[in-house]
Amino acid sequence: MPHSSDSSDSSSFSQSSSSSKQDSSDEMRKVQRREKNRIAAQKSRQRQTQKADHLHLESEDLERQNAALRREIKHLTEELKHFSTVLNSHETHCSILQTQPTVPSEVLFTPLAFPQSHISSPCFQH
Prior knowledge:
By secondary structure, the chain is mainly α. Helix content is 83%, strand content 0%. It has helices spanning 2-93, 95-99, 105-108, 116-119.
């Protein structure tokens, strides 16, 4: 009888040893999975930070471009006012315009409003 009890003890030990190896293996896989997950989360946060940094730089660049375009609009508007004033002043002294029938103002601003012979006339050299 003692012999049979020894054999049951040894099989019990074998199962226990096998079970603890299984638990240890499962625990190692769990630790590895957590480590891989931690690294993946860290990389994801790093990509998010890089994307936010890139968007911030792009936003600053667009703000600079916008400011430059606003300055250009302001300059062109001032230039338009100046040329409109010059044109209005010129119209009162222009002998060509006084001898020709009245032309709508939108036609005066097109490149084809005057024939080339008028462009070289003294009227346009004021």
